Every structure is written in C-alpha cells, then in structure tokens.
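step: validate -> pass
step: tokenize input -> pass
step: predict -> running
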Amino acid sequence: MKLLKSLKKDNMLYWSLEILILVCLIFLLTKLDFIYRPLFTFFSTLSTPILIAGFLFYVLNPIVNFMEKKIKIKRILGIIIVFLILIAIIVFTLLNFIPHLIEQITDLTKDVPAYVKDVQQWLLGLRKYPIFKNIDLQSYIKKFDFS
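step: predict -> pass
step: emit ->
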C-alpha cells in the first residue's frame, strides 16, 4: 500500500508503470488469440441476424402498432400483413433488379478487353517520365495481356 502511494506521488513513474502493465496485457492477449478466435467467430456469426432483426423491429413495429390501434386489427394479423408486404416489396425489387444486374455484368465482360487496352496504353505512356525510364513496362504488360 505504501508502494502504491509513493508511486502515485511520482506521476512519471506511476504512468510509466500503468502503460507497461497495459502493454504487457495486450501482448499476452495477442498470444492467446487461439482461445478467443472461436468466440469472435461465434459472436460475429450471431450478431448479423440479431442486428437485422432489431432493425426490422425498429422500422416495422410502429406500422404494426398503428394497424393495431387505429385500424383495430389484431396484432398477429397486423404482423402477418406487414411481413407479406415486406416480402412482396423484396420480391418485386429483386425481379426488377436482377435483369439489370445481368445486363450490366454482360456489358462489363464485353468491354473488359477495351479497358485492358486503355490501361496498357496508359502504362506505356508512363515511359516518358524519368522515374519509369529504367522499368521495363512492356514485359509487365505482356504478363497481364488478355488478348
């Protein structure tokens, strides 16, 4: 106890000791990560569905409360209606989104060779700068030639 009081009087020594203890604790915990890794994996796997459920509750609960109080629908029926509407919105969005996504990916795959040629020309244009004079850009371009 006397040692602690004397250490507190000397601020520099006290904080140095505190920092040393903290660094040692962090060092030890990094060496024991094989114990904590499965726990982190477990909690990260669980956290996503819990966060989604919390978000849906936060967003959809006022709608269900409104239906229950103002329209006088039983709570379970209100929940079913809200979920059916939510599922319909998700399905409608996916049905409209997926064809556009496929079209965009198809266009991208058709245009990749042109993009590669543009990048190759840009890289060859770098030769005019002194920093790139000693680098054989042509050999690097041949390694990644897609044509």
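step: describe -> The CA atoms of residues 116 and 144 lie 9 Å apart.
step: cleanup -> pass
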